Amino acid sequence: xxxxxxxxxxxxxxxxxxxxxxxxxSLSVRLAETRAEIDxxxxxxxxxxYEERAAKPTAxxxxxxxxxDRFDEVCDHLLVIDEKAGPGRTGKVVGTYRLIRRxxxxxxxxxxxxxxxxxxxxxxxxxxxxxxxRSCVAADYRNRVTMQLLWRGIADYVFHHRIELxxxxxxxxxxxxxxxxxxxAYLYFHHLAPPELRPRAIESRYLDMRRLxxxxxxxxxxxxxxxxxxxxxxxxxxxxxxxxxxxxxxNTIDICVVVKTFNVTERYMKHYTRDxxxxxxxx
Length: 283
Fold this sequence. Notes:
Blueprint: E1 22-24, E2 27-31, H1 35-52, H2 59-64, E3 76-82, E4 92-101, H3 102-106, E5 117-118, H4 120-123, E6 128-137, H5 144-161, E7 163-173, H6 181-191, E8 200-201, H7 219-225, H8 228-235, E9 239-240, E10 245-247, E11 252-260, H9 261-267
């Protein structure tokens, strides 16, 4: 486990105050401020994606026991830290999200999602946009409080940077579309993005989501079967892009999610107080 007290870079706001900061018991949420904290995020991603969910690491990833790519050196890493855990009780990263803003993407070759989707409609949006990705939580911390902290952190980040649209790939487990036909059809027929915001899977990877007729979908069953993260996005009024993509490295089928951040601020921040993010647990 990486020692979070190791030195490294810091990434507070221009005034020196943290852009994101909230607590719930021994848990806190903020952006990574040191190289050690970034490494701890990459460690956690490796544990969840490759050791737990059997994704296929590159040789370098396996040697380092970290999940990483070219975006990790330029993005912001949102962290949930258990301040009373880890070696010497110095803190342990137990949840993470990767955040990439438009200006960062434009100066470093584009967004990760563009490997799977044509995101031209999103890029045409005149306001600030944010790509969310690489979300994971340690097994012992998969509960409402941890997720509420992650969403609180995202909401604070959105406020600070005046983000208007968030997007990214979300995953359903497995690579056999026949096993999730109802979920894919439900997402397409009930949550398809409007044309002006609709990403589309690139042709070489396009998987048609219209695998069942609308009348044959059991809406309640399909919604219940979706991963918790996707259900969370839908509660925020998320839209879904056209087409799914099989990701053989991660053993998943991906969809593209688009969220207007007005829904984040309205549905989450109105439930929070600045002192107790657990006030939003009923949201």
